[in-house]
Amino acid sequence: MRLNHDCVRDVMLFIEEEQELGMALHLPDFLNQKKPAKSRLDKYDAETIKYTLMKLDETNYLNDHCVITQYQLIEFDVTSITWNGHKFLDTIRDPKIWKTTKTVASHLESVSISLISNIASNVLESYIQRFIPKV
Questions:
Q1: Domains in the chain and their CATH numbers?
Q2: What span, in angstroms and rounded, lies between the C-alpha atoms of 102 and 119?
Q3: 14-38 pLDDT per residue, tens
């Protein structure tokens, strides 16, 4: 299964929007059972969301508990976004930066989450440079 980078971004934004301090988000919160109306995750099927959560568990972006048996996600609880997760999210949050990042990444056959983060950082830095007066 291919990792859907739009889903990674939307899951991270969903966590940031929906999680309250001291409260965990659970697997049903990400799936249709408990999502708020008009969720940013509505456009993804359950398998895509589950695969994204499994892959995010492998990153250093979330404080989470994940149970996988026979390659199936059985349980997923996230208590917070880590410092690195916030850095990643802040880099890819802006829709213009995200769109340009995806355009650059589309020229490559395979792109990891860390490479997406690096591309987005470079795109953001390039964007910022336009606003810095030349001396």
A1: 5-81 (1.10.10), 88-129 (no CATH)
A2: 9
A3: 999 998 888 999 999 998 756 556 6
